[in-house]
Description:
The structure is a single chain. Helix 1 (about 5-20) crosses helix 6 and helix 3 (about 145-155) crosses helix 6 (about 200-220). The protein has 2 domains: about 5-130, Alpha-Beta Barrel (N-terminal domain of MutM-like DNA repair proteins), CATH 3.20.190; about 145-270, Helicase, Ruva Protein, domain 3. It contains 6 helices and 10 strands. With about 280 residues, it is an alpha+beta fold. About 40% of the residues are buried. The radius of gyration is 20 Å and the shape is elongated. It has helices at about 5-20, 40-45, 145-155, 160-165, 175-185, 200-220, and strands at about 25-30, 50-55, 60-65, 70, 80, 95-105, 105-110, 120-125, 260-265, 265-270. The chain has a 4-stranded antiparallel sheet.
Amino acid sequence: MPELPEVETIRSGIAPHLVGQTITYVIVRNPHLRWPIPSDLPQLLPGLTITAVTRRAKFLLLDCDVGTLIIHLGMSGSLRLLHPISGFSASAPQKHDHFDVIFNEQIILRLRDPRRFGAVLWHCGDIAQHRLFSYLGPEPLTDDFNARRLYDKTRGSRISIKQTLMNNRIVVGVGNIYANEALFHAKINPTTAAGKIGMMRYQVLVQAIKSILQRAIETGGSSLRDFVNCEGDPGYFQQHYAVYGRGGDSCRQCQDIIQHIRQNQRSSFYCPRCQR
């Protein structure tokens, strides 16, 4: 699943092309995604202008005059920007191209989603009150996510720190890949109970999370399986993995063997010598 750096990469790629553009029309080829695409979108959206393209957690938000188009990429979704030269036949949709937004009859924003776990939704009013956003914790790259908050939220908790970091009520968008990498750089074993970690170690962990996510954004995210940016190009952060996907390989710091375990049905990778 695309995580925060991948979604932020797409956001920064499409925003310069879409802000200020007016929606000409909408095509829904298959409404059956994770939740059904609202049937009235082809009537609601034409004539609206995109005022901002933002992100909340792993959701892309296309802000319009009177509401917000919410897009989630799910497990296998991708967004492409198409610039047809001579009519839309030059960009003929493929089997898994389920949703198009056409701007000024010059730009197509196309959602491709082979597994159909993504979502396209519409919300009028304050987006923070939407059922998908009302319970979310802070963004990890903001000042609202800090060691004090993480420390206070985990007092008495027996849940592992790895699972804690993937709880959207605690912090949003970290995801499995970047939780593994941040815990390695903070030298914390992923199975450690969150309630047993002290303030000083949380300060190191929070800084590691912010640093890892920022580096991932700068390198275009991670391309595992399906992810490409809005121009169809892969990300490159996977070339910098310290532990993720390296079970059985030697740790690059101490040469011990990277361990691979399952936590809450998700893969965790760690070095038993470096991470305590």
